[in-house]
Amino acid sequence: FKNLSINLTDTIQQSFSLLFTGSPLETTGDMVSFVKNNYINKKEIFEKIFLNQQTLVENLKSALEQNNLNEIKKIIGKGEKNLEKIGVVSLSSEKIIRDIEKNGGSAKICGAGGVTKSSGIILAIHEDQHLIQAIAKKNNIIYSQVALGQEGVRIEK
User: Fold this and answer.
1) Tens of pLDDT, residues 9-63
2) What's this model's pTM, rounded to 2 decimal places?
3) 30 near 126, Cβ under 8 Å?
4) Distance CA 14, CA 24 (A)
5) Count of CB atoms within 10 A of residue 84's CB?
6) Where are the alpha helices (DSSP H) in 24-90?
7) Residues 60-103: pLDDT tens digits?
8) Residue 70 to residue 50: CA distance in whole angstroms
C-alpha cells in the first residue's frame, strides 16, 4: 500500500458518507466460503468479474487524480454491480443503493457483505448530503458523513 498524493476538490471531499444497514447475519468467513464455492462452480464468470474489479480500481485512481466526480460515481456503481453479480449484497441494501442512484448518487457495500438481512456498511457518494441523510432516515439506518484522506482509527501500545 502507498498513500496517494491527490488534492481533491472540496465538493468531492464532502460527497462521501457511510450508511450502516445493520450487522450482517453472515460472518466474513461465511461470505468468503460462499464466494469460494460459487467461484468453483462459475470460474470463468467470476474471473471476468474479478478482472473488471481490478480495472475499476485502476480507473478510480485516475478519476480521483482528475477530480472527476461523475467518473468516480460511475466507477463505484460498476463496482457495486460486480458485488451484486457475485451475490454478496442483500436485497435490502440493493434497495437503498438503487434509491441513491435514482437520486443522482452512487453507492456500494464495503467489507464482506451479507445477504440474509443486511450487508453492513454502504459507501455513498452524492453532492447533496442532506439527500443521503434523508434516505438513511427513511430506511431507519445510521448515516455518517466521512472525510477522505484522513488517518483512520489505530491502537497504540
Assistant:
1) 999 999 999 999 999 999 999 999 999 999 999 999 999 999 999 999 999 999 9
2) 0.91
3) no
4) 27
5) 18
6) 28-41, 43-65, 69-85
7) 999 999 999 999 999 999 999 999 999 999 999 999 999 999 99
8) 23
Sheet with 16-20: list strands edge to edge: 106-109, 121-125, 16-20, 142-145
Range 146-149, long-range pairs (CB < 8 A, 24+ positions): 146/16, 146/17, 146/18, 147/13, 147/16, 148/8, 148/12, 148/13, 148/16, 149/6, 149/8, 149/13
The whole-angstrom separation of Cα 6 and Cα 63 is 10
AA letter at 145: Q
Q: Name the one residue in this structure whose C-alpha cell is 457518494.
A: 125
Grid cell 455513498 in the structure block, residue: 124
* Structural element, H or E, at residue 19: strand 16-20
- By the 8 A CB rule, do 150 and 122 touch? no
pLDDT of residue 149: 67
Please state, as a whole number, how many other Cβ atoms lie within 10 Å of the Cβ of residue 131: 16
